[in-house]
Design a protein that fits this description.
This protein is α/β, with parallel strands linked by helices. The protein is built from 12 helices and 9 strands. The N and C termini lie far apart (45 Å).
Length: 297
Amino acid sequence: MGVKISIVMVNFNSGDVLERAIQSLIAQEYPDLQIIMIDSCSTDSSAKIIEKYRHLFDPCIIEKDRGTYDGLNKGFTHARGEIFGWLCSDDELLPGALHHVAAEFERNPGADIVTGGCRRIFPDMTVLDCPPNPEPFKNIGVQNTIEQSATFWRAALHRKVAPLSLRFRLSSDWDQWNRFKKAGARIITTPQILSRYHFTETNQTSKAGRLFVTEAMVILRKYGPLGPILPRVYRFLYMHFDLHGCYDRPPTCSVVRSHFFICTLAIFRVLIGERLLYLYNWHFAACQERGLPWWKN
C-alpha cells in the first residue's frame, strides 16, 4: 500500500479554481491519502464545491482563521500520515506525483524531504517547467529555491519544527525550509515534474511586490550571511536601481542612474563579494510594483 500521505488544502473564496485542485488529488489514485480541507468561511462557490467532495475530506473544517498559514497549522494538527505536504487552491499535483514521492522516500529511508520540479503557468498562459535546484539548501537563506507545491516532508520533521510562522503573509514556506535546514534535515531532489503552479494577475504571489521585499529582508536577516548587511544592500539595490529599470533587459533607467548603478555594484562587490551580489533576485517584485509582466522579465 505504501506510506500514508497527508495533504492539507486551505481555501478562502477560491471557488473558481478549487475543484481543479481537488480533482488533481483524486486523480492521484493514491490508496492511502488523507486530504484535510480547511476553509475560512468562504462566501463564493467554494461552499458548494466543498460539499460536493466532503466525503473525501478527513476532516473538513470550515471556520475563520488568521490567514493561510494559520489554516495550514490547524490542518497539520489533524494529519496522520507519515509524509506531509500542502496544496493551495490554485495549484495542482500532476498525475502520479504522490506515487513517485512515496517511492522516493522508500528508496531513500534517510531522506527527510523530497522536492521535485514544478510547471509554472503564467497569466498569459506561458508555460515554464522549473526543475528542482540540485542543491536546494545551498542558498536557501538568500533565495527561496524550493517549489512549495512540489515538496513533501516527513511528519517527524514537521513536528520537530512546527508550527508555521504567522509572522509572514507570503514567505512562511521559505522560513520553514530554513528551519528544516537548521534542524539538520536531509533533502533530496527528483527531476520529476510533480506540480502545476498557476499564476494569475490577482493572486497574492503575482502582486506581492513590496510585501515580498519586506518579508525577504526578515528572512535574510534571520538566516542569511552577514547579519543585517545583506538585506540592507539588497534593499538599496531594489529601491534605487531595480524599481528604476536598471535590471531590465535592456535597461530602461536613465544614463546617469546607469553610471551610478555600475559604480555601486563595484563598491558592493568589494563589500559583500561577487557571489552574494549576484544572488540578488528581486527583479520580479520590482516588475510587479511597476505593473509590468514580471514573468517575462
